[in-house]
Write a structure and sequence with these properties.
Blueprint: H1 4-7, H2 9-36, H3 41-44, H4 58-67, H5 85-114, H6 120-140, H7 149-157, H8 160-167, H9 173-181, H10 192-206
Helix pairs in contact: 2-5, 2-6, 5-6, 5-7, 6-10, 7-8
């Protein structure tokens, strides 16, 4: 993505804006659900806002631009403030990916409605990066590996006994994740074999004719 800075500066700016929007919506949704479920921690930490500066992690954002892999600033919440800590943690976790996919769906509707207008090319240039990055961020975070959202989602679904065993894997999450995203021998990242078909599925719906291969 960073290579487009000189080849296509306007397109690069559009992708940067899309990146900022996708991460902001994702993290704000975590904070909003945590607050609604009784934990004031995100509000006290200034995360209950749509101001991107509250949600962007400098290193994570830079890596997203360079390596197409990155992260926002994680939303912290105190499970002791939740009525049902395991279930509510899963709800808070799934809020981020769902918000990204929901936004992508709404933008897709807007795109289709405006394609017949004289401003169709401009609208596509603006909305396509937003749709693609929201789909990628949403699907990627559903992977059940800590620290991704999917890990706590699975923990909230499992029966209590199995959930305790599941959470014992948490300390090893980063090792698993690095292994899954590292492209071995110049090939594709192992995780891409799992999530690219899902990303493609959503992109075919939201952006007909646009594929997701090579995104991860």
């Amino acid at each position: 993505m960073l290579g487009d800075l000189f080849n296509n500066p306007v397109g690069f700016v559009m992708w940067v804006i899309a990146l900022v929007v996708a991460i902001t919506i994702h993290e704000f949704s975590h904070a909003f659900l945590a607050d609604r479920l009784g934990d004031p921690t995100p509000r006290l930490q200034g995360r209950l806002t749509l101001n991107p500066l509250a949600h962007l992690d400098p290193l994570g954002s830079l890596l997203m631009l360079i390596a197409r892999f990155g992260w926002g600033k994680p939303v912290m919440f105190d499970p002791f403030n939740l009525r049902n800590p395991r279930r509510d943690a899963a709800i808070i976790s799934i809020a981020g990916p769902v918000s990204n996919l929901l936004l992508a769906g709404i933008l897709s509707i807007i795109l289709r409605v405006t394609l017949a207008t004289p401003y169709a090319m401009l609208i596509v240039a603006i909305l396509e990066p937003l749709i693609v990055l929201n789909v990628v961020l949403g699907v990627f975070n559903l992977v059940p590996i800590h620290p991704l959202d999917g890990f706590k989602i699975v923990g909230g679904i499992l029966p209590a006994e199995y959930a305790r065993q599941w959470y014992e894997l948490e300390p090893y999450g980063m090792i698993f994740l690095i292994f899954m995203i590292f492209p071995f021998f110049g090939g594709t990242a192992p995780i891409s074999h799992f999530i690219t078909p899902i990303i493609n599925f959503f992109l075919v719906i939201f952006l007909p004719g646009v594929g997701g291969s090579g995104i991860i």
